[in-house]
Amino acid sequence: MFILIDKPKGITSHDVIGKVRRVTGERCVGHAGTLDPNATGLLIVGVGRQSTRCLWEKFGKLTKTYLGEITLGEERTTDDSEGVVRPMEIGIKSKLVPTKKQILKVLKSFLGEQDQVPPNYSAVKIAGKKAYQIARKNLDFAIEPRKIKIFSIKLSDYQYPIVRIETNVSSGTYIRALARDIGRRLVCGAYLSNLRRTRIGTYRVDEATPIDKLELENMSFDKSKAEKLLISGINAYY
């Protein structure tokens, strides 16, 4: 079976898996599309061997929609609020205050297919090691850009230094990297300060179950109770 979970801030996607294992009593549990600890929102969880085997096939390449909060005026080592302040690149002016018109123009420039360099603190493999493992040792390395596509990006609100956006992107897109690149194109620097995933394909976070509610109900792994949490239109596996 598959369950839509609304992940809270402060826990990892792997923590969610652990909680679902305890609730269902099923050891074979996986998820489609990692969310960082500080990110919230929709996580699709597969429970049972058959479900976990077909997670990527069913959900891996679906588009994703996010609500992002971007803070202008500085960069962080992780490209989000978890990192320490990073020295600006040459030409970046932290005290520059972009106008709304400039922000709209820059956001529009990110539409379509493009190359994106993932954050240094990511799980991208470099010579067999995860990039964040190398970054934590303060070693120099480079990550090759990847092809991504941004289908839509709109400005929801702007009150300097906070820019709020809603964006629909291809699988594999890092919103942290998008925030970093927006800051560089605005010539003022930026990092991602908040993120919420609201949609994966046609599945919405308002259909999801908060993980604390799942634990509270202590769902047993049986069809009669599990059906309440299943994604509509997707077959359950038992």
Automatic annotation (TrEMBL):
Keywords: Isomerase, tRNA processing. It is an enzyme of class 5 (isomerase). InterPro entries: PsdUridine_synth_cat_dom_sf (IPR020103), PsdUridine_synth_N (IPR002501), tRNA_psdUridine_synth_TruB (IPR014780), TruB_C (IPR032819). Residues 21-175 form the Pseudouridine synthase II N-terminal domain. One of its GO terms (molecular function) is RNA binding. CDD domains: PseudoU_synth_EcTruB. It catalyses: uridine(55) in tRNA = pseudouridine(55) in tRNA. Residues 176-230 form the tRNA pseudouridylate synthase B C-terminal domain. GO terms for biological process: mRNA pseudouridine synthesis; tRNA pseudouridine synthesis. The active site is at residue 36. Pfam families: TruB_C_2, TruB_N. Its EC number is 5.4.99.25. Responsible for synthesis of pseudouridine from uracil-55 in the psi GC loop of transfer RNAs. Belongs to the pseudouridine synthase TruB family. Type 1 subfamily. NCBIfam families: TruB. This is tRNA pseudouridine synthase B. It comes from Candidatus Woesebacteria bacterium GW2011_GWA1_39_21. The gene is truB.
